[in-house]
Amino acid sequence: MAEHSAQAVAPLEQAETRLLAEIDAMLAESRQSVGERAELDSALERDLGLDSLARVELLTRLEQAFGVSLPEQALVSAETPRDLLRLLRSAQPGRAQVIEHEVRSLVQGGAARAPLQTQTLGEALAWHAEHQPQRLTAFLYEEGREHELSYAALYESSLAWAAHFAATGLATGQTVAIMLPTCPEYLYCFYGVLLAGGVPVPLYPPARLSTIEDHLTRHIGILKSARAALLVTVPEAKALAYLLQAQVDSLRGVLTPADFAGAPPAGFAPVLAKAQDVAFLQYTSGSTGRPKGVVLTHANLLANVRSMGRAARASTDDVFVSWLPLYHDMGLIGGCFATMVLGFPVVLMSPLAFLTRPAQWLWAIHRHRGTISGGPNFAYELCMRRIDAAGLDGLDLSSWRFAFNGAEPVSPETMRAFEERFAAYGLQRNVVAPVYGLAECSVGLAFTPPGQPWRVDRIAREHFARSAEARPASADDPAPLVVVACGRAIPDHDMRVVDAAGIELPERHEGHLEFRGPSATSGYYRNPQATRDLFDGEWLRTGDRAYFADGDLFLTGREKDIIIRGGRNVSPYELEDAIGDLDGIRRGCVAAFASRGADASTERLVVLAETRETDPEKKNALRKRINELAVDLIGMPCDDVVLAPPHSVPKTSSGKIRRIASREYYERGAGAVKPAPVWLQFLRLLWAGLLPQLRRGLRVLAGYGFALRAWLAFLVVIPVAFVSALIARPSFTWALGHRLARAFFVLSGIPLAARGLENLPREGTVVLAVNHTSYLDPVVLLALLEWRSWGFVAKREFESNFFMRTLLSGFGCSFVERFDIRMSTEHAAEMTTLARAETSLIVFVEGKLTRFTGLHPFRTGAFQVAVEAGVPVVPVALRGPRSVLRDGTWFPRRAPVSVTFCKPMTASGGGWSAAVQLRDRVRVEVLRHCGEPDLSGGVPEPDHRA
Fold first, then answer.
1. Residues 580, 625, 45, 670: is their CA dihedral positive or negative?
2. Using alpha carbons only, what angle is made at residue 825 by residues 822 and 828, rounded to the nearest 5 degrees?
3. What Å distances lie between residue 824 and 793, 828, 842, CA to CA?
4. Which helix H or strand E contains 68, and what residues bound it?
5. Cα Rg for the chain, rounded, in angstroms?
């Protein structure tokens, strides 16, 4: 919060003078004065330039100055100082806390349960109403009032609303638009539509009454796209909403909560939905073209909530605290649906309550012992800026175990500062967790595991911009590119990064991010072209660019936001953030984008930044500083810097920069910008137009060229190896295969490195315990190990294939049963006999091969063999083969491969317990060197912290 001098509380008799003085002082501090003093009828936003965040600061100062508590609605209802004066005179003395500080547990006594078998949201609600009717599902704060809502009360009220919907003639499958704030009626309406057989369509309510007309007009496109039959909205909007019926043919009624107050019509029976029925339509924000409604079924939603619950290790003992708006997927699915599916209570606050007094969010977590809560990055920034220490006495955040941060670019500086400041109030280490999601995957796709420290990757900026390879920066790099990890795919979901040709890329190579899983939408509502563009076979395109490193997802930007300049890929986020920190620029009001100009010649880097400066010399100085900053960050100046007045940079309803709309704004006013000389435009056309396309084409060709080279190398060596396996002894076949495997890596150009070969005992029998990453793994080991009576251990399924059986048997391979317990026991005994007979075994101890990056739990069989035979185990960590040849594809990619042979380990004692202890010790060692995350549920410390 900005410093505010301590002054005596102003008497209300002098309210007018003091109010205007406070506004003038704030304008002077923020250099927002335009030469006129504030008047009672000045428009706060239009005349004085006080946007929403500035009004939050103003209300805080007025409460301090007058010793009163202003209502939350003051943030959106006050348009002029006169409105504020009226609110001040009617306000209650004292800054009463809306949220009491006393701890109030929402987790009731008795064993809570979650509906594990239900398939729809309505079915889940009915299950709770039948099995635990009085258990709390939601606790709502609304303008100083508190509402406790049990499952039974929610179900009964939703049934009543459903009966009213049915009475209006709502047919199964028809859509109902919901434009309500956070309140109990929102929940009644949403579930009421479902129980009536309809499809809810959440819309964000008007921010201020003075903008209702503009607000409703902008929703016409969504109402038309969804073919909404009904609109449920706030009373203030009802009259204007009726006018929409002339423009939206399908809209036949506009209702308010008051229309549902009477007794419900008799004889209503709820409609029983099916798992594949549409649960609701989530319209994506920020589009400048045709609205896109993401179709989400009950099966999608329940799968997503259950997978997120597993990723967050949620239980019925958790308490979810949310200020996130219910019209947004993160607030609706992440909060409200979770209480239905996972069975824990949720605390709901209005977004206005958070924006006006961010401390209320933290006090709600304190009061209700909240365990899960979060929001976009700006929420954590707001807490840092707007909460002073005086309002935190007694705050206890020790119950908070999962603070997710997502929905916009995550700032490591913000997370670090938040952790450090609120550690004094009980916030535990490793609670803040970057996450990633999108509406097309219901909401959540990747989570940082609870309790695991969040990571950042410091990569070489210049190399990344030119090659799209995220090479770690050197320790002395003066300006590395810092990227935050967003975790790993939630259970049952998968992600990949592909190049322009749709071929999967290895780790640390940036490309297009795609996903698949049960939460994935079937497409966009009544928009077949956008649906076709969304899918790449069974994979869905996210529209984001990213790379993977050590199993974690690193987002680098939106595909449409990437600026190709001088053969480089420039992401706008870091540049915008840095420019926003400059004195004189409005933070959060900067857009960097590419524009080809009116002649569509060359792509130019443009910065559109809001400022209140009017002096030409000061504006020129700002432009110079912006260009100097651009040179420092991305190695080149901007082609154009436009300093625009406040509210020029378009944003979405959730506050995100709309770069496409910003580009259109710029291009419409391009005549006001001095064009570059013709010769310079020609050079830019030649350099920035041709070179990026050439680089992208060369990358694709290089990928195909490497794949062809690798397959040719394989076809050269495999026939020789097969003939040798068919007719020669294993010792000869191994010696020949060793040379052939080494030749394969040389011919294909795959770098191969080994560390710790000296740890292999020169004599005696050993068991090599190896992690399994790719079908290339045996070739890697064959290239590094000389003959010493080795024997691979492979799954018995290979015996049914003549080629694989012949090839593997020639190298002394033994086949073991994985599923039949009796045969598996017999094969384990045979392995023990081989080990005692001085055959060294090579065992892939994960027992399975998947395309997912990560180290799975180890099977115990190989370690039991080692214990019974009395031989040491050598942990072997493979790193890289999965990136070269991932399971599910036969298209190899160039990536380095390294193998680490660790020091031998022996069992301490005998029997099953000794084998288990040996297994766990070996796995810890492999995990240290394989460079992949732990998928066993453990929480390993990463190699570095932000």
1. negative
2. 150
3. 13, 6, 17
4. strand 68-69
5. 31
Closest to 500 in 3D by CA, of 769, 768, 697:
697
Check residue 67 and report its DSSP letter. Answer: T
Quickly count: other Cβ atoms within 10 Å of residue 614's Cβ: 11
* Burial category of 284 from C-beta neighbours within 10 Å (exposed 0-12, middle 13-18, buried 19 and up): middle
Question: What's the Cα-to-Cα distance from 179 to each of 147, 326, 336, rounded to whole Å?
Answer: 20, 10, 17
SS3 513: strand
Confidence of residue 30 (pLDDT cuts 50, 70, 90): low
Residues 469 and 463 sit within 8 Å (Cβ to Cβ)? yes
Tokens of 17: 């003078």
For the chain, report the end-to-end CA distance as a whole number of angstroms: 25
Contacts of 346 (CB under 8 A, 6+ apart): 137, 138, 139, 319, 320, 321, 322, 335, 336, 338, 339
Read out DSSP for 494-511?
Answer: EEEEE-TTSPBP-TTB-E
pTM of the complete model: 0.74
Structural domains in the chain, CATH included, are 12-93 (1.10.1200.10), 121-356 (3.40.50.12780), 450-561 (2.30.38.10), 563-675 (3.30.300.30), 705-930 (3.40.1130.10)
Nearby residues of 268 by Cβ (< 8 Å), 6 or more positions away: 159, 162, 163, 166
Describe the chain by its helix, strand, coil percentages, rounded to 5: 40, 20, 40
Question: For 681-702, how does the pLDDT look when each residue is reduced to its tens digit (9 = 90+)?
Answer: 445 444 544 555 676 677 778 8
Based on the number of CB atoms within 10 Å of its own CB, is 772 exposed (0-12), middle (13-18) or buried (19 or more)?
A: buried
The residue type found at 848 is: K
Q: Distance between CA atoms of 431 and 428, rounded to whole angstroms?
A: 6
The per-residue pLDDT for range 548-580, each reduced to its tens digit, is 998 899 998 877 666 655 445 566 777 888 888
Burial of 528 (0-12, 13-18, 19+ CB in 10 A): exposed
Residue 269 has pLDDT above 70, yes or no: yes
Degrees (nearest 5) of the Cα angle 627, 628, 631? 85
What's CA 400's distance to the chain center, in Å? 20
Q: Do residues 509 and 470 touch, judged by C-beta distance below 8 A?
A: yes
Q: In sequence order, what are the residues at sequence separation of 6 or more whose Cβ sits closer than 8 angstroms to the Cβ of residue 184?
A: 138, 140, 142, 147, 149, 157
Q: Are 10 and 18 in contact (CB under 8 A)?
A: yes
Closest-CA residue to 753 (of 874, 877, 851, 849): 877
Place of tokens 């929001």: 375
CB atoms < 10 A from the CB of 342, how many? 24
Give the whole-angstrom CA distance, residue 275 versus residue 153.
Answer: 24
Residues 192, 159 contacting (CB under 8 angstroms): yes
- With contact defined as beta carbons under 8 Å apart, do 156 and 180 qualify? no
d(CA 24, CA 38): 6
Query: CB within 8 A of 929, min separation 6: which ones?
Result: 877, 879, 900, 902
CB atoms within 10 A of CB 727: 10
Per-residue CA distances from 566 to 563, 697, 698 (Å): 10, 15, 16
CA 216, CA 327: separation in Å to the nearest integer?
Answer: 15
